[in-house]
Amino acid sequence: IPVAVGAFDCHMGAVGAGIKPGWLVKVMGTSTCDIMIAPQAAMEGKLVRGICGQVDGSVMPGWIGLEAGQSAFGDLYAWFRRLVMWPVQTMGLPEATVADLEARIMGHLNAEAEKTPLGLDNPVAVDWINGRRTPDADQSLKGALLDLTIGTDTPRLYRAVVEASAFGARAIAERIQQEG
């Protein structure tokens, strides 16, 4: 008789990815969950400051599971898509037409954002739209868009959102490295 057991999706995602010591597995969805495992002996008396959890056996028996993540990932992109697509979604068009326009508009936006040159005159975003999980959890924090001008266009704004999620991921990896 098959018997199922309860488990956290991100932990099982790490197991399914074949997690090994020294690997950081990023399970992405509405948020991200970043998982590592470490030998119990290596973690004896050591706490990694600012991550979400450090639990014996939480990912794999006999290993310490290190858990971090971003409070919004897919949610951040879904918010931006809703913002861009609001006019189309509220016009009463047939669902198939809305889906086609969304695919075309978002594909074009992505291509144009890739062409955006790096520079100090680009807007900056902070990815804390649902609070900050790691490093140093604070769910009261909010996202931000900075350095907007009248010349800020949608591709530059989208690129700022993408960069915010990328730099949020980098901050997690850097914290784990800083903590040894």
Q: Pick out the low-confidence regions.
A: none
Count of extended strands: 6
Share of helical residues: 40-55%
Principal-axes geometry comes out as: globular
Q: How many strands, which pairing sense, and closed or not: the largest β-sheet?
A: 4 strands, antiparallel
- Strand residue percentage: 15-25%
Structure description:
This protein has 180 residues and is α+β, with helices and mostly antiparallel strands. 41% of the residues lie in helices and 16% in strands. A four-stranded antiparallel sheet has the order 1-2-4-3. It has a two-stranded antiparallel ribbon with strand order 5-6. Helix 3 (74-89) crosses helix 4. The model has no long low-confidence stretch (mean pLDDT 92).
Short précis:
With 180 residues, the protein is α+β, with helices and mostly antiparallel strands. Helices cover 41% and strands 16% of the residues.
